[in-house]
């Protein structure tokens, strides 16, 4: 049984940075495309980014393009989401997912 666990969320001031981690157990992340999602209170979950399994090509939703970067560390079986220039509207619970598994989420709060 596979599992994904996110970490790295927290409170950050506007303009600040956070790096979220998505660690896998029970399967090899490198074999699968991994997506990052977020859900703010009262809003639907939205897809933000993904990294492919074949060539590590990436996709970014327009609102995060140029500010967020997704990457892999295969040795650590972990995918990262580097988030820079954070805005109050980026505040949400962030999730990573593979087709079969979702993490439990990590809270990101952006406030001064």
What does it look like?
By secondary structure, the chain is mainly β. 0% of the residues lie in helices and 48% in strands. The protein is built from no helices and ten strands. The chain has strands at 3-7, 10-12, 18-25, 34-39, 46-51, 58-60, 68-73, 78-83, 92-97, 106-110. It has a six-stranded mixed beta sheet, with no helix packed on it. It has a four-stranded antiparallel beta sheet with strand order 1-3-8-7, with no helix packed on it. Strand 7 and strand 8 form a beta hairpin. The N and C termini lie far apart (41 Å).
Fold blueprint:
Blueprint: E1 3-7, E2 10-12, E3 18-25, E4 34-39, E5 46-51, E6 58-60, E7 68-73, E8 78-83, E9 92-97, E10 106-110
Parallel strand pairs: 2-10
Antiparallel strand pairs: 1-3, 3-8, 4-5, 4-9, 5-6, 7-8, 9-10
What key attributes describe this structure?
mainly beta, 6-stranded mixed beta sheet, 112 residues, single chain
Cα separation of the termini: 41 Å
Q: Report the strand count.
A: 10
Helical content stands at: under 10%
Round the Cα radius of gyration to an integer and report it.
13 Å
| Average of the residue pLDDT scores | 95
> Poorly predicted ranges (pLDDT <50, ≥5 residues)?
none
Shape: globular
Strand order of the largest sheet: 2-10-9-4-5-6
- Compute the number of helices: 0
Order of helices and strands: EEEEEEEEEE
Strand percentage: over 45%
Question: By helix and strand content, what is the structural category?
Answer: mainly beta
Largest sheet: 6 strands, mixed
């Amino acid at each position: 049984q596979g599992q994904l666990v996110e970490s790295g969320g927290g409170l950050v001031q506007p303009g600040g940075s956070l790096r979220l981690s998505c660690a896998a157990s029970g399967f090899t992340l490198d074999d699968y495309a991994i997506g990052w999602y977020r859900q703010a209170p009262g809003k639907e979950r939205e897809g933000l980014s993904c990294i492919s399994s074949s060539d590590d090509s990436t996709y970014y939703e327009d609102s995060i393009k140029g500010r967020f970067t997704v990457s892999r560390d295969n040795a650590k079986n972990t995918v990262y989401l580097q988030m820079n220039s954070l805005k109050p509207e980026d505040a949400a619970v962030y999730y990573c997912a593979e087709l079969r598994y979702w993490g439990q989420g990590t809270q990101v709060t952006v406030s001064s």
